[in-house]
Amino acid sequence: MPGREDRELLRLVRAELDWEPSLSEEQIDLAVKDGVVTLSGQVESYEQKRVVEEAVKRVSGVKAMAEELHVRCPGSQECTDTEIAHAVAQHLRRQTSVPEGTVKAKVEGGWVTLEGVVELAYHKAAAERGMDRLQGVRGITNLIAVRAVASTDNVTSGARETFVRGSIARQNGAGAASARRASTEEEGAK
Fold it and tell me: Residue 10 and residue 13: Cα distance in Å, rounded?
């Protein structure tokens, strides 16, 4: 029989999951023993799986989490890796923030692995963004490398331009403040 602390922790985790509108209570089975929360059952998407994990992490007193949730495809049939790969490829084509041809994807058992080399961390994040909502995706591993493109010349000229812009802005701001003071002083003298 679970201890009082485990029963209270189970109650808190259930309450936290109840606040998530995208989840239904029947989908997820919970067990708690010695502060370890075990999640099992089925969810509709990898995105829902991450929502559950984040909700449990927010509960104070959770020492560890054993996540045994399965992502199921809508309908009665399982999504094949080929169907998922087509959806992933289409998703990458629609991501205008990802330079074309820089990212390749592999799908195995519903798990998507992204590989390639991009110029910016923003491109790496953009490639993955929204992919967790694709049907059949059970997980994502983002192995995209970000190429270091900063050179000392780029950094130096960029810093110099930033300094000049700030200096001009301060001068313009100071000039405007002086003009406002002069205008106020003139009005006060009248």
Answer: 5
Strand 111-118 relative to strand 139-142, pairing: parallel
Is the whole-model pTM more than 0.85? no
Q: What is the tens place of the pLDDT at every residue in 113-147?
A: 999 999 999 999 999 998 988 888 888 999 999 99
Please check whether residue 158 is in contact with residue 131, taking contact to mean a CB–CB distance below 8 angstroms: no
- Cα 120 from Cα 138, distance rounded (Å): 26
pLDDT in tens, 26-75: 678 899 999 999 999 888 778 888 889 999 999 999 999 998 888 776 66
Q: Is residue 76 part of a domain?
A: no
Listed in sequence order, the residues at least 6 apart from 43 whose beta carbon sits closer than 8 Å to its beta carbon are 23, 27, 28, 49, 52, 69, 70, 71, 72
Q: How many helices (H) and strands (E) does the chain have?
A: 5, 7
Overall number of domains in the chain = 3
Q: Using alpha carbons, list the distances in angstroms from residue 93 to 97, 129, 130.
A: 10, 13, 13
Say whether both 66 and 9 belong to one domain.
yes
Q: Which amino acid is at 68?
A: E
